[in-house]
Amino acid sequence: MATFSFGEDHALRSALLDFVVGTFPDITSLQYAINGKRNDTLFDQDIITHYGKGFITEQLGSLKFKISPKSFFQTNTAQGLRLYEITKEMAQLTGEETVYDLYTGTGSIALFLADRAKQVIGVEEIDDAIEDARYNAALNSIEHCEFYTADVKKWLQSQQAPRPDMVVLDPPRAGLHADVIPAIVALAPRRIVYVSCNPATQARDIALFAPHYQLVSMRGVDMFPHTYHIENVACLELS
Tens digits of per-residue pLDDT, 116-171? Predict the structure, then answer.
């Protein structure tokens, strides 16, 4: 799947996109956006399908996932599976827990943990991603996951869901908003598993949890070989 962003529409747009499809036959879905802002943010833009179904399907373990252009998903699926296996291992679920998966994206971590949880609640501010998450729950016949489109900070401050026994965090590279950490601390989950693509902001956030939570384990996953980028998973337990 590939998505092109154009600063303005042009008579040669279709010819260019047709050339891309013809030149790269492995592309199964090609979209574009006319982004008058001329920046790299497409979440507030209309995505138009030029070729294919407008989404792709990936598989992690026994689970299948529909992925739309605005949805986040791990690009290295082999290591993505390993990342989620480590997350599940650190979660230490018994089947009796309520789990929050914050910044859930397409619901991939939430659904991966669902077979060992009583209830999983995923929160993500991108509506297209939440639509995919709900579709993916139905696709995999998982009925005890709920997904909400909301800003994580605001949702934590106003939500009426059951208190979590465990929280999974997988935020953007900027890490957690300063108001998210005290909102989680107020809920007092026994365990937090923090998945990060930026160990620097993760370390900053873990330090802010430190008065209430102890860092008990940490493991890195090489998601992008031959680069310095890694995913890092940290497990925190209530002091």
Answer: 999 999 999 989 889 999 999 999 999 999 999 999 999 998 877 789 999 999 99
Kindly report the pTM of this predicted structure.
Answer: 0.86
Which one, of 197, 193, 203, lies nearest residue 223 by Cα?
Answer: 197
pLDDT tens-digit readout, 197-220 = 999 999 999 999 999 999 999 999
Task: Name the residues annotated as catalytic.
Answer: 197
C-alpha dihedral (163, 165, 171, 175), degrees to nearest 10: 90
Asked if 168 and 193 touch (Cβ cutoff 8 Å), the reply is yes
